[in-house]
Write a structure and sequence with these properties.
Layout (H helix, E strand, L loop, with lengths): L10 H14 L2 H21 L4 H35 L14 H31 L4 H18 L23 H20 L2
GO biological process, one term: protein import into mitochondrial matrix
Main location: mitochondrion
Keywords: Membrane, Mitochondrion, Mitochondrion inner membrane, Protein transport, Transit peptide, Translocation, Transmembrane, Transmembrane helix, Transport
Length: 198
């Protein structure tokens, strides 16, 4: 049986409905939809939970940001250090710390490049957190939970020989749930070997 359609025979009701539709598509409708979307996204951020696969994916993206920004920051450090030391007065008769000025300026340029290399991950992390601002509270929460699990499940570092350190002490090589399970197995094997020498 085909669905029934109820068609109004009143012309005034159709006109009123058209006027109401036009009014809703105006500024009031835009304002209503904006605030409803804002509230919806706010509740999603508050109530949304993150699974471990999503966490490891975001963690990998954060590492990618940190590694990518290491390159320009290193070059900026080298260029900045080189520019600064190239504009210093050069006198071959004067030594600095008992060394030639060229050597000291070269070492200073290298140190500036190393400083840029160290600041690269910091800049990458800041930009990552600004881009993924909505997921930042959940990511921080999952970071705390992840490192708590690492501390609880890794082998006891007390008395471990330097020749055989604990594998992946901070869990930095864990990139997925599969890697985490493999890390747990390695910790159990290391614990068994240190306790029973097997």
């Amino acid at each position: 049986m085909p669905p029934c359609r109820f068609i109004s025979t009143s012309r005034s009701s159709n006109i009123a409905g058209t006027i109401d539709t036009i009014m809703l598509t105006g500024a009031d409708a835009i304002e209503t939809s904006f605030f409803s979307n804002l509230n919806r996204s706010h509740h999603l951020v508050e109530r949304k939970s993150m699974d471990w696969n999503s966490y490891f994916a975001l963690r990998g993206t954060r590492r990618l940001y940190e590694r990518v920004f290491m390159v320009p920051s290193t070059f900026l450090g080298l260029l900045g250090g080189g520019y600064y030391f190239a504009h210093q007065d050069f006198d071959p008769t004067i030594s600095i710390f008992g060394m030639d000025q060229v050597i000291v300026y070269g070492l200073g340029t290298i140190v500036a490049g190393l400083a840029g290399l160290a600041l690269g991950p910091v800049a990458g992390n800041v930009i990552f957190r600004s881009v993924h601002g909505n997921a930042r509270p959940l990511l921080d929460k999952m970071d705390r939970e992840f490192f708590k699990r690492i501390v609880l499940n890794r082998a006891n570092p007390t008395g471990n020989p330097l020749a055989h350190p604990i594998p992946d002490f901070y869990g930095e090589k864990i990139k997925s749930v599969h890697d985490y399970r493999a890390w747990l197995r390695k910790q159990r094997e290391y614990r068994r070997k240190t306790m029973y020498y097997v």
